[in-house]
Structure formats: C-alpha cells, structure tokens
Write a structure and sequence with these properties.
alpha/beta, Rossmann fold, 7-stranded mixed beta sheet, two-stranded antiparallel ribbon, 11 helices
Length: about 350
Amino acid sequence: MFNYNWKLSDGYTSKGIENHKSKVFSCFSCGGGSTMGYKLAGYDVIGALDIDHKMMEVYRENHKPKYSFIESITTFKDRDDLPKELFNLDILDGSPPCSSFSMAGNRDKDWGKKKKFREGQSEQVLDTLFFDFIDLAKRLQPKIVVAENVKGIIQGSAKEYVKKIYSDLDEAGYYVQHFLLDASKMGVPQRRERVFFIAFRKDLAGKFLQQVDMFLQRPYLELSFNERGVSFGEIYLENDESDRPLNENTEMLRLWKLRHKDDASLEDASFRDLGLKKFYSVKYLKKCEIPLTLPAHADSSVLMDEPRRPNKRECCLIGSFPIDYNFKKLPYYYIIGMSVPPIMTANISKEIYDQWLSRL
C-alpha cells in the first residue's frame, strides 16, 4: 500500500487511502519521518517540536508546518500560550530520545545524567523526557498518544521504565498498549525493530465500545504486519555520485580486503588478523539480505561487494525517505538514522485510523 521508493514532489496521495485529515502534533520531530508517515496515511500534521534548531530548519523546509517550536519539551509542556488547536488533537506523536535505553549504549550507567546532542542544544536528562511527553499529553488530552522508542526499553532493568510509562499514562487518563514491531515486515527495506506505546483516552472508550463489543473492557488495537522483505540487492545503485568509498589509507579498507563471505562485520576480519575486536559496529550490507537498522553514524555500514558505504539514494530507500528530501547542510545518513521510517508510521497510523478514529 505504501511504496518505499517515493518523492515529496509526488504529494501524499496513496491509492486506497482516505484523506481524513485527522490532526497530529509531532514532538521530538527530528527530520519528520513520522510526520511523512502520517501524511501518507491521510492525516494532517499541524505542527512539530524539536530542541535542535538545525534539525527544525530542515523540518520546516520539507514539511511547511503551521506551527513549529524550537524548545525543550520540559519547558514547552508548561507554556501558557499554546495554540488552542493543540488541545483538539486526534494524535499526539513523539519519539523521545532513546540512547539511554539502547542495548548498544551505556544504558543504566547513563540514567539520570544530563546529555546534549551534536548540534549544541541545551543539556537534558534523556531518560526522563518520555515522562515530560506524558505530562504534555495529560495537559493537551489528545484522543490518542503514540510514542516510539528502541527495543531496549522493554529489556533488562529498563522494564521498570515501562511500568512507570503505563502508570503515568493511566493517571493521565489513557488505556495503553505497547508493540514491538519490525519495519521490514511493513515494506521498509530495513530490519528496524522499535517499540510503540499507543494509548487511547479513557473517556472515549464507552462510546467506542458500544459500537464494537459491549463485553470488551477496553478498546484494543490489533497490529500485525507481514509484508515481503526487501533485500539490499533490490535497492542497490551502482556508480552513484554520492558514493562514499573507503579511504585508501584507512584500517577499515585493509580489513575489508580480508573479509570472508560469511562475515557479519569488519570485526570478524579484525579478530582473525589482529586478535582484536575492532569495528564491531561496522556491519556488511549484503545484496541477498535485508539491510540492518540504519543508524545515524557515518561509518556504521559498508557494502560486502564494494569498498564503500551506502550512498544517498540507497540510504533514502533503506529508511523509506523520499528521494527528493532536502537535507540542507546536515548529513543525510544522520537525519535518516535519527528518524522513524515514514512507511513504518504510515502502516501503523492507518490501522489506528481504521480501527479507532474512524469509529469515534
């Protein structure tokens, strides 16, 4: 239903999709991955919030929002001059920064510590931003709240955060479910597992249940996707002007030349040659496989068949970003890696509309 190979210039009309214009406001909007997904599914994204002024410049350039705020959610949630339109939302969407919960990071060693991102914005305690987002939901009272995060938030000691998320959303007046979903099963050429917390406002449940099943205790959302996986070979582009070859003088290229066909990353060659586990995060892109999660770091992947990193068009397709997206002066791999794949959000939000919003 949603094509990963698309352009902003083609517009947001998708075959078989109703342009219902349900209203969405996006927090932690980044490059607008979720924004584009909602628009593809027939929603109207009326505004966005992000603390990064450079990222918001890119967002404004591509999405032309009615409202846009460059501010931390910790202060935004307490503003007394918020537009009235934000109090009548269908969906409040957000992707709170997730590095504190990532299995690749320091996890609980970083919990409670202030951090800042690369563009020089103010320091924040990242693992509490999710609860500032819930505070905003409690104030705005949208019909539905959607929050995306990394798989690590439901693993290990981070599960205590999930309990508090459920508790705080319950106190804010919402029923909540969470789903572990894989973008590769939604038509995205990327194995990207993410957790989605989706909450339904309690005072709407009675009306909803009368229309569906009076014996249900609460409205449950059914999310099950099983589209065909898309391999890297299907999006591979040879001799593109944006190719990023490995530098001839780097250790990465030397180890790449020592690769075996069954290797998963440069670490394998490093261990064979040096006895050291270096470059463990530099994964191979193999034409016969679905690409792994595309992170924001430039050196996170390299082609198995060519000594180069994925080029701009390949990264856009892996992330289901429009190939004519204007990244301005920011690195394309950074924005795509930081953003929710648009086609992932499109699939999820279509189900939210079909199962819930269309029946209210």
